[in-house]
Design brief:
By secondary structure, the chain is mainly α. It has 10 helices and no strands. Helix 1 crosses helix 5.
Length: 201
């Protein structure tokens, strides 16, 4: 006597795909690097959208209401750091002859952006809580505009670091991964406008 078993779809859910890419970045980066160029960049586009929306929502918090003027320096600094560091890291990976295809480094950066978008979105409730309990503290009200881009940038730096060291365990790859993360943070810190810190005054 047979029993009815509900059919289970073999197609993974979108959220499963997203979190699998973040949980196993080295394997996913290799798979992405073998796909068409638009598929390699797809996680980056999703991540950019999430980071931009989360940073804009966090920057809109103000003692005077919702304003965005002069409060998106952190978001701009993230993309400026990427434009400076990623091309240089790609050139050095080719020069050092690492077991790391240039497309794999690009895919790792795309996954890093995706992870950064997820982290930035997940911390928004915490930022909202800070605003609700700190209505009389302008300095705390300014924290989300700085914390959300900073957390996103740190997440973005960690994913390529993990991918590079996983795909190539050599000393050269380790140093490239460290320099990649270090210069992302340094360029981000240098490019954050002083107007952002004036929010605390």
């Amino acid at each position: 006597m047979g029993s009815a078993v509900p059919a289970i779809s073999d197609r993974p859910h979108l959220t499963h795909l997203l979190f699998r890419a973040v949980d196993r970045p080295a394997r996913e980066a290799l798979e992405l690097s073998r796909r068409p160029f638009w598929a390699t960049l797809a996680p980056a586009l999703v991540g950019v959208f999430l980071v931009a929306i989360a940073s804009a929502a966090a920057a809109a918090v103000s003692p005077r209401g919702f304003v965005l003027g002069g409060r998106l320096d952190g978001l701009r600094a993230i993309f400026e750091a990427l434009l400076v560091v990623v091309p240089g890291a790609t050139v050095f990976s080719v020069y050092l002859r690492l077991r790391l295809p240039a497309r794999a480094l690009l895919a790792a950066t795309a996954l890093g952006l995706l992870a950064a978008g997820l982290v930035a979105t997940c911390v928004l409730p915490l930022m909202a809580f800070l605003v609700l309990v700190s209505t009389d503290a302008p300095g705390v009200l300014a924290l989300p505009a700085l914390l959300v881009p900073t957390l996103a940038l740190c997440t973005l730096a960690l994913i390529p670091f993990r991918v590079i060291t996983s795909l190539d365990p050599s000393d050269s790859a380790r140093w490239l991964a460290r320099l990649f993360a270090f210069f992302l943070v340094v360029v981000f810190a240098l490019r954050v406008n002083a107007a952002l810190f004036s929010l605390f005054q």
